[in-house]
Amino acid sequence: MAVRVEVGVAVSESFPRTLTNVGASSTYVASIEGDTSKLRFKVDPNTLRFTKRNQKMNFVVTVKGSKMKPSTINSASLVWTDGVHKVRQHFTIHKKEPEDEFRSDC
C-alpha cells in the first residue's frame, strides 16, 4: 500500500482490507514491523479468528503521522501471524510529486 502526501501535510490514511484463510481454523494477530518512529499504525481489529477454510474477514489499517518533509520516505510492514504462518503487507509513505497529478497509473 502506498500513500502520497504533499510536503507540509500530515499523514492520515485508512485502508480497508480483507484477509482470506486458506487453511484450517486459526487465529492471526497483527503487528507492525519497520520504522514506526514517525508514523502511528492502528489495525482494527488486530486479531482475526478464522473458524473455517476460505473464510474472509475484514480489517482496516489507519496510518497517521506528522507533516511530511521534502525528502521523507517511510516504510513499514503489517504482519499477520498465527505463530506458524506469516502474511505480510508492505506500506510506503512518500511525498507527492507535482507530476503525480498527471499520471494515469496512480
UniProtKB/TrEMBL annotation:
One of its GO terms (molecular function) is hydrolase activity. It comes from the Eukaryota. Its EC number is 3.4.21.25. Signal peptide: none annotated. Keywords: Hydrolase. Residues 5-91 form the Subtilisin-like protease fibronectin type-III domain. Gene3D superfamilies: 2.60.40.2310. This is Cucumisin.
